[in-house]
Task: structure prediction
Amino acid sequence: MIRHIGTLVRSELRNERRGGEVATVIIPFGAVALLVIPMAVGIETTLLARIGPGLYWAVVLLFGMVVTQRQSAAADRPQRDLLTLLGVDPAARFAATALASTVLLAVFEVVMGVITIFLYDPTVAGWGWLAVILPLVAAGLAMVGTIAVAVTSGLAGRAALAPLLVAPMAIPILLGAAQATEGLRAGAGILRWVLVLAVVDVLLVLAGVLTARPLEES
Result:
């Protein structure tokens, strides 16, 4: 299974490198979204520093849904049938898609983070915690998006249905991330919020693995 996962992840990332959807479309639009807010609220530095982290997570959630719902290399029915004939477990396909989306989301988070720091200059203590928070959020959103795409696969209007599933499922992730960064800004403890993110990720792993085959067969 590990070999299958590695092969599929490389295929997903290779397709993204060729298509460039994240680099040429999603990241620029995310940057524009962060740029528009200061133009709307003015250049009051105290206000911008206070709202910066919250706006950052809102942009990550909004555009992260687009990243996770991009066309997967194994999303088409013929591709899935071929992988099934080759003996690739549905759980391996879930893991590969989620891992590839996690990598792309992590890149998106880092780029948006640099832009947020430049535009909003937020006051955040304990920057080292971000090395834990960002991957946890990226993994959580990636799995939520992967599950939502699998649930809505083959349904009419899936492009509209998937975000409706992602939004409520992503609430614990967004809440944990926002509270953790607010705690860093205030210099308070954030361990409980990091644990919330970790627990949510573990639950999503279990949900994705356990439902991969039933969703594939439905």
